[in-house]
Design brief:
The protein has 408 residues and is mainly beta. Helix content is 6%, strand content 27%. It contains 4 helices and 21 strands. The protein has helices at residues 5-8, 11-20, 57-60, 290-296; strands at residues 46-47, 53-54, 94-96, 104-106, 119-123, 129-132, 137-141, 153-157, 164-171, 178-186, 191-197, 203-209, 220-223, 235-241, 245-250, 253-259, 264-265, 268-269, 276-284, 307-318, 402-404. Strands 3, 6, 7, 9, 14, 15, 16, 20 and 21 form a 9-stranded mixed beta sheet that branches. An 8-stranded mixed beta sheet has the order 4-5-8-19-10-11-12-13, with no helix packed on it. The longest helix has 10 residues, at 11-20. It is globular, with a radius of gyration of 20 Å. The two termini are 25 Å apart. The model is unreliable at 1-21 and 362-408 (pLDDT under 50).
């Protein structure tokens, strides 16, 4: 993911979070700035991936920054959900084809339990994510003019990977300005990228970032073998990440390797080395000025939209695990997310208003926002469906996922 993605692609989801909280409830150091907003206060304890303090699932879930969140350890409840590899949580390997065996939940309704969902869905337009009846997920980028950034979609794993291999089989968009991304991203903003931009029909681009530091000299461009246009068919994009190196593969062939030792200056190595979620998205690179727009292929011609990237499958192999042949085994008592789940508007146990029922797997909350289905509901149990009413500081429309015709 190019480092401007969090500033643009999710702009429309970040702004409601800002407006819903008290003024000056920023936290940490937003990417691309030298600001230091410090830690979140107790009443809005979670520092989100957008450096906004809050108390909802969107703040306390994936990407929540422990370093800048309120320390609730004295109350036996830390602010951020505990879903990173550690003493009580391990990386989860799986092969996901996005049939009903892949569990997807709206990000605003995710309760922090990695057993309850494989991926969270973050979107602006609820119709921009479609699951095929025979598998696969198609992400759309929509817009009407270049006055505002286009609206895309992003899926993120609920578990974190600390070294291992991840692969996606993707049919990318080749429209200038449109970026198809498959990356790893840590809460500390360590990042490893595969990105494909329109106008470069045979080229996939590799990159990596350390602690959010922008250094565009680290990117690489790689022609895939035996293809004239990556958008014409599905191709495999793989990253092998170890404590010593990162290797990018295209259709099984090694295209680039970066060694940790080569990133070191003195005792500091600018090498991704923190637990990371795997994410994939489609976003508007043409909306960013300067070099990013040129890198993405220029401004998008919206008269030719909408634009799509289709992910046939995603494989995640944690360090030390054998290659998975299917989704992870589900513990007893768990079931796929229901088509409609309410947003979790209070996700911090030690604060008043904590919605205990919403935090239980598969349960609906008796409080919070009531959702009204709209459009076509998902027609399979593994999808998140329906369109919801707006909520306080959260994108609570739960999925809006359509059961599309077979995409593959």
């Amino acid at each position: 993911m190019h480092p401007t993605l969090l500033l643009l692609f999710l702009l429309a989801t970040a702004l409601p979070l800002i407006s819903a909280q008290k003024p000056n409830t920023r936290c940490g150091t937003p990417k691309g700035t030298k600001d230091d907003f410090g830690k979140c206060p107790r009443e809005v304890p979670c520092c989100s991936e957008h450096n906004i303090c809050g108390r909802e699932a969107l703040h306390c879930g994936g990407g929540c920054k422990n370093e800048f969140s309120f320390d609730g350890s004295k109350t036996k409840d830390a602010s951020c959900f505990k879903n990173r590899p550690g003493k009580d949580q391990k990386c989860v390997s799986g092969l996901y084809d996005f049939t009903d065996k892949t569990w997807v939940i709206n990000e605003a309704a995710y309760n922090g339990d990695v057993n309850s969902a494989d991926f969270t869905l973050n979107y602006v337009n609820p119709n921009n994510t479609q699951f095929g009846k025979t598998g696969g997920v198609r992400l759309a980028l929509t817009g009407t003019s270049n006055k505002d950034p286009g609206q895309g979609a992003r899926l993120s794993t609920t578990s974190y990977l600390m070294y291992g291999t991840f692969t996606a089989r993707i049919k990318v968009s080749d429209a200038p300005g449109v970026v198809t991304a498959f990356i790893s991203m840590s809460d500390e903003e360590d990042e490893i990228d595969w990105e494909m931009t329109g106008g470069q029909s045979r080229v996939g681009q590799s990159n990596y970032f350390y602690r959010g530091i922008v250094d565009n000299s680290k990117g690489g461009k790689h022609e895939f073998p035996n293809t004239n246009n990556l958008a014409d068919a599905y191709h495999d994009y793989t990253v092998r990440w170890t404590k010593d190196s990162i290797t990018w593969l295209g259709d099984g062939q090694v295209l680039r390797t970066v060694r940790r030792a080569d990133t070191c200056r003195g005792n500091t190595c600018s090498f991704p080395s923190t637990p990371s979620r795997i994410q994939f998205a489609i976003w508007d690179g043409g909306a960013v000025g300067g070099g990013t727009r040129d890198w993405a292929g220029g401004m998008i011609d919206w008269s030719k939209g909408p634009f799509h990237a289709t992910f046939q499958s995603v494989m995640i192999q944690c360090d030390g695990d054998s290659e998975p042949k299917g989704p992870p085994k589900r513990p007893d008592g768990y079931k796929p997310p229901t088509p409609i789940l309410p947003a979790i508007t209070e996700a911090v146990p030690y604060l008043p208003g904590y919605q205990a029922s919403a935090m239980e797997n598969g349960a609906s909350s008796s409080g919070g926002q009531q959702l009204t289905p709209g459009g076509a509901q998902a027609q399979r149990s593994g999808a998140v469906g329906g369109r919801g009413a707006g909520g306080v500081g959260a994108v609570v429309a739960v999925g809006g996922v359509l059961a599309a015709a077979a995409l593959l």
